[in-house]
Amino acid sequence: MHPSRSLLDVRISNCYYTHNMSSGYPTATIISTKEDMIYQISFLEKYCASYTPLIISLVAILLVIFNIILASIIHRFRWKIRYWYYVGYNKEIKHKGYSTIESSLRDLIFKYDLYLAYEDDVKEIVFDILKPKLLDLEYTVFTHDDILDGLPLYNVITKSIHASRVVVFVLSNGPRDSLEWKIAAHITNEESNHRQKPMSVALFYNSDSTVGLPEELQLLRRNAFIDYPVNGSEQEITAFWEDFITYIKRN
Fold first, then answer.
1. Do 73 and 170 fall into the same domain?
2. 186: containing domain
3. Among 221, 228, 232, which Cα is nearest to 244's?
4. In this predicted model, what pLDDT tens digit does every residue of 188-239 receive, in sequence order?
5. How many domains does the chain have?
C-alpha cells in the first residue's frame, strides 16, 4: 500500500477468482473501506476453502452405512446363502422323483429316503426302534451320527438333506439347541422352499412342543405331525407304523 494513498490495491495470488475466465491472471480488487476488506476476506475464505476433509468424511459415512446394510442383508439371508453355497453348484441327478447330488464327499451319491433329525435325548428310539425298522422296510436312512469325524457339518448336512426325499424331526421334551438340529431345521426350510413343496414330518416322542421345527413345518404342516405311542400296545405300534409310512409317502 502506498503511504500517500488511502486505497489498498489487492491481487489474489493463491486462489484465483476472475470474472473474465479467459484471462490467466486475476483482476484487481479495490478495497476502500473496512467493510470491503471484511467482505473480501469472507468471500475468499468461502471460495478458497478446501472441501477435501468434508468429502472424505461423507464417503466414510456412506461406506459405513453401506456395510451395515450389507451385513444386515447377509445376516437375514444367511441360511439361504449357505444353502446355495453348498448346493447351488453341485451336479443334480434325478432319482425316483427327487434330486440327489453327485458330491465330492468320498465320491458318494446321496440317495436317502429319510433324513432323521434328533437330539441326544432320543437317540435310543432313533437307533433302537426307528432306524432298524426303516432299514427292514428297505428305506435308506441318514443321521448326523453317520457323519465321519472331521467332515464339515454344514456341508454334509446340507447336501444330505438336499439328497433326501423326507426329513423326519424326532421331538422330545428335551432342548433343541444343538448345532446339528439348527442346521437341519434351517436347511430343511430352504430345501422345501426350493422344491416348492413340503418335505418334512414331525414325530413326537412323549412331547407336544413344536419349538425348533422348520418354519414351514411348524406353521403350515399340522397334518404332518404324528405321535409315537410310548408304552403302546402291539396294535397301536402297528397303526403307528402304517400312519408313519403313509406320511412319508406323501412327500
1. no
2. 91-250
3. 228
4. 888 888 878 888 888 888 766 666 666 655 554 555 788 888 887 888 888 9
5. 3
How is residue 14 written as a grid cell?
493463491
Is residue 40 domain-shared with residue 66, that is, in the same domain? no
User: Is 0.70 topped by the overall pTM?
Assistant: no
113-165: pLDDT as tens digits: 899 999 888 888 899 999 999 999 889 999 988 888 778 888 888 888 888 88
Both 241 and 178 in one domain: the answer is yes
Please tell me whether residues 95 and 66 are part of one structural domain: no
